[in-house]
Amino acid sequence: AQKVTQAQTEISVVEKEDVTLDCVYETRDTTYYLFWYKQPPSGELVFLIRRNSFDEQNEISGRYSWNFQKSTSSFNFTITASQVVDSAVYFCALRNNAGNMLTFGGGTRLMVKP
Amino acid sequence: NAGVTQTPKFQVLKTGQSMTLQCAQDMNHEYMSWYRQDPGMGLRLIHYSVGAGITDQGEVPNGYNVSRSTTEDFPLRLLSAAPSQTSVYFCASSLGLQGGGYEQYFGPGTRLTVT
Q1: CA A57 to chain centre
Q2: Contact (Cβ atoms closer than 8 angstroms) between residue A87 and residue A112
Q3: DSSP state of A41
Q4: Other residues' Cβ atoms within 10 Å of the Cβ of residue A103
Q5: Min Cα–Cα distance to chain A from B96, Å
Q6: Distance (Å, rounded) from C-alpha A70 to C-alpha A53?
Q7: A58, A85, B30, B84: which has the highest count of C-beta atoms within 10 A?
Q8: Residues of chain A with a CB closer than 8 angstroms to some CB in chain B
């Protein structure tokens, strides 16, 4: 069975601070797919990024960056210069090679204070 | 495109009642799924479908039934509601399984309370 762990249940930062959300996963598949989703207070789930297991290149998108390290089974998410609008619950998820199972971590609630 | 739609948005049931949560997508996606979200547990897969006429169980299928008669619709049925089924339910869809890594598009959710 596959598993995703987000050890940080809640993080509070002051605006403009950088913050890293941790994600550790377990899987027996050699090919798999990792995702991050954002759930703002309004409740919808917003897709942020997908990473294939065979592509370890880190990615940056504006203030967001992702660090994928296969050796430590981690896929961490960093927000640079956080803003109040970043306040949300962030979920890391793992999709198996067959594509039929998406497993979520428990989520990290990020609170950015002005 | 409306994307993934769910009805109702809110529902209160009494223990033992049955109901169907509706889900529809207009993106011609093969894969559809249902999740429940409980505090601190993320989202857990209930049932999924890889195409019309094909469904399978996820992580927490007990107490729920599904069917997929068309590509667009994937209803979730609660046969006899229990307080443990109080949760927020999300429907999602994505392109088919080939390649495995397509992101899922989520509906707005249905908040269900069972008293």
Answers
A1: 15
A2: yes
A3: T
A4: 22
A5: 8
A6: 7
A7: B30
A8: 4, 6, 9, 31-33, 35, 37, 43-45, 47, 50, 52, 91, 93, 95-107
How close is the nearest chain B Cα to the Cα of A71, in Å?
A: 20
Distance from the Cα of B16 to chain A's closest Cα (Å) equals 28
Q: Which of B49, B102, B103 to probe the A interface (max A CBs under 10 A)?
A: B103
Residue keyed to tokens 């869809």: B93
- Burial bucket for residue A34 (CB in 10 Å: 0-12, 13-18, 19+): buried
pLDDT digits (tens, 9 = 90+) for B59-114: 999 999 999 999 999 999 999 999 999 999 999 999 877 666 688 899 999 999 99
Of all residues in chain A, the one with the smallest CA distance to B9 is: A43
Each residue's pLDDT tens digit, A8-54:
999 999 999 999 999 999 999 999 999 999 999 999 999 999 998 98
Question: Which amino acid makes up residue B46?
Answer: I
CB A9 within 8 A of CB A89: no
Query: Which residues, 6+ apart, have CB-to-CB distance to B108 below 8 Å?
Result: A43, A44, B5, B6, B9
Residue A33 and residue A51 in contact, taking contact as beta carbons nearer than 8 Å = yes
